[in-house]
């Protein structure tokens, strides 16, 4: 059976003013009305993912530190990123014509482009909308086929201190109709008087660690669902929910015995994310000279700055430093990422010197991994990526095309905000402490950042192709100033992380 969720959104005009209310009506298992807030940004109507999710009753989260919002539609999780046109549906990546934005502590999405994309490419006709005479969106949501059955599926939700077992029902049962107990044999039994289930079509989601097996039995006057447990249950509770309707069994295992264990796990997690190791990468090296100046090579400039930077980080920040190279040696790009990951690095910083046919080009810029937004950024990435021409086996980079850029940056989605933040702190510190042109924070597809499982940036310290800037880059005093500016930027990031 198809249940239609009808969203009625009425606009006084095609342009919304900030804070205007959108009337929302939801029809389906539960009928209710509510309101959504919309606003205009650069002639585009935006709505909050979190508010829409909460008002409609969808599951999902908002991670304010990463500026990411999610919601679950059917069995698919949709993830939206502030300041990015990309969003993810499970493992697939899609692009909107304009960026989602961060406003009011939530990711806000361009409403009409999103609905159009969902309707045409992702959920195939289940997000149908019209604009005249009033804006009207109809969402068709395929619910479970209840039919004559009143027990239709079971899903599991693992928590820190136990597990939730949720049995989907069309409406709550009388409390006295539900019985549950744990037998000494290690079986958990749930019996529902007047319960009906289809043993062939009953949907069972992936089993959690505590559940080894599920057995369904339909009796004449009741239905029984049995769960084989893999460990002892300390406590069992049963309750029901409405909107949507579930029978919920809460299993509290031995993990819930002590709050000390809980806080110990939190401390462990904090230690895992503590910035205790920074990986420094001196660009190029060995047979790869990098950019060539009038009297110097990029590889030498990079190494000199990195060695000074590493000493300052260890002395001033007290953070361990790992180097991808400390001498004039050739290190493949993919191995640089391996070194960083194997060292459990918490930050990856790659140091380079820029070059351009225009000898007047000058300045300092910082990059993070993402598809290039400009031709100039793409050109910089292309030059730095050319190092693979010195490598014997280039097949490892075959997946790094335009789509690969997007996938790689999305795989790093939990780090991209930190990477942007580090880049901004470093760039601002350089602007404050050095008399060089501020070329800003940019994004591009650098192979050296492709497989680092941590926040990562690439710094172009100046143009070795510019004679005046080359003199600075080869001057030990200026190299020290560059290192100090980077350390000052890192210090501010570490204190706020």
Fold and architecture overview:
The chain is of the alpha+beta class and 497 residues long. The protein has 3 domains: 3-141, Copper Amine Oxidase, Chain A, domain 1 (2-Layer Sandwich), CATH 3.30.457.10; 153-256, Immunoglobulin-like (Sandwich); 274-496, Zn-dependent exopeptidases (Aminopeptidase, 3-Layer(aba) Sandwich). The chain is built from 10 helices and 27 strands. The strands form 5 sheets. Strands 2-3-4-10-9-8-7-6-5 form a 9-stranded antiparallel beta sheet. The protein has a 6-stranded mixed beta sheet with strand order 23-22-24-27-25-26, with helices on both faces. Strands 17-13-14-21-20 form a 5-stranded mixed beta sheet, with no helix packed on it. Helix 4 (298-317) packs across helix 10 (476-496) and helix 8 (413-433) crosses helix 10 (476-496). The longest helix is centred in the last third of the chain and has 21 residues, at 413-433. The chain is elongated and about 90 Å long. It starts with a strand and ends with a helix.
Assigned CATH class of the largest domain: Alpha Beta
How many helices in DSSP terms? 10
- Which assembly state applies to the chains in this document? single chain
The end-to-end span amounts to: 49 Å
**CATH homolog superfamily of the largest domain:** Zn-dependent exopeptidases
> What is the helical fraction, as a range of percent?
25-40%
CATH topology of the largest domain, which one?
A: Aminopeptidase
Class based on secondary structure composition and strand pairing: alpha+beta
């Amino acid at each position: 059976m198809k249940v239609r969720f009808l969203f009625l959104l009425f606009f006084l005009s095609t342009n919304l003013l900030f804070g205007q209310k959108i009337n929302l009506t939801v029809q389906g298992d539960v009928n209710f009305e509510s309101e959504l807030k919309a606003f205009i940004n650069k002639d585009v109507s935006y709505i909050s993912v979190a508010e829409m999710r909460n008002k409609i009753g969808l599951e999902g989260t908002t991670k304010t530190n990463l500026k990411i919002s999610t919601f679950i539609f059917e069995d698919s999780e949709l993830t939206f990123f502030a300041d990015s046109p990309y969003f993810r549906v499970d493992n697939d990546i899609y692009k909107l014509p304009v960026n989602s934005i961060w406003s009011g502590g939530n990711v806000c999405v361009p409403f009409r482009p999103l609905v159009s994309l969902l309707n045409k490419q992702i959920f195939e006709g289940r997000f149908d909308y019209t604009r005249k005479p009033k804006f009207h969106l109809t969402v068709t949501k395929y619910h479970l086929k209840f039919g004559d059955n009143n027990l239709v599926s079971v899903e599991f939700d693992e928590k820190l201190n136990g597990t939730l077992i949720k049995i989907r029902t069309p409406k709550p049962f009388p409390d006295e109709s539900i019985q549950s107990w744990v037998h000494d044999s290690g079986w958990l039994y749930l019996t529902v008087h007047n319960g009906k289930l289809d043993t062939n079509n009953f949907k069972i989601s992936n089993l959690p660690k505590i559940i080894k097996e599920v057995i369904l039995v339909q009796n004449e006057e009741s239905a029984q669902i049995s769960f084989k447990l893999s460990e002892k249950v300390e406590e069992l509770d049963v309750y029901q929910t409405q909107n949507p309707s579930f029978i919920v069994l809460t299993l509290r295992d031995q993990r819930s015995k002590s709050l000390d264990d809980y806080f110990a796990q939190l401390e462990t997690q904090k230690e895992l994310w503590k910035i205790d190791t920074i990986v420094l990468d001196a660009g190029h090296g060995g047979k790869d000279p990098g950019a060539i100046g009038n009297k110097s090579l990029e590889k030498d400039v990079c190494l000199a700055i990195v060695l000074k930077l590493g000493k300052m980080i260890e002395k001033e920040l007290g953070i361990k430093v790992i180097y991808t190279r400390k001498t004039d040696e050739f290190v493949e790009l993919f191995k640089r990422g391996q070194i960083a990951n194997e060292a459990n690095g918490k930050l990856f910083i790659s140091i380079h010197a820029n070059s351009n046919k225009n000898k007047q080009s000058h300045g300092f810029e910082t990059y993070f991994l993402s598809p290039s937004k400009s031709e100039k950024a793409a050109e910089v990435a292309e030059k730095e990526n050319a190092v693979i021409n010195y490598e014997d086996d280039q097949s490892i980079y075959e997946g790094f095309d335009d789509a690969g850029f997007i996938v790689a940056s999305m795989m790093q989605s939990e780090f991209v905000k930190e990477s942007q933040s580090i880049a901004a702190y470093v760039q601002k510190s350089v602007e404050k402490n050095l008399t060089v042109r501020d070329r800003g924070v940019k994004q591009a597809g650098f192979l050296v950042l492709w497989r680092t499982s941590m926040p990562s940036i690439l710094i172009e310290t100046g143009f070795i192709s510019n004679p005046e800037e080359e003199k600075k880059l080869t001057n030990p005093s200026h190299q020290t100033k560059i290192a100090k500016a980077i350390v000052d930027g890192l210090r501010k990031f570490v204190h706020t992380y």
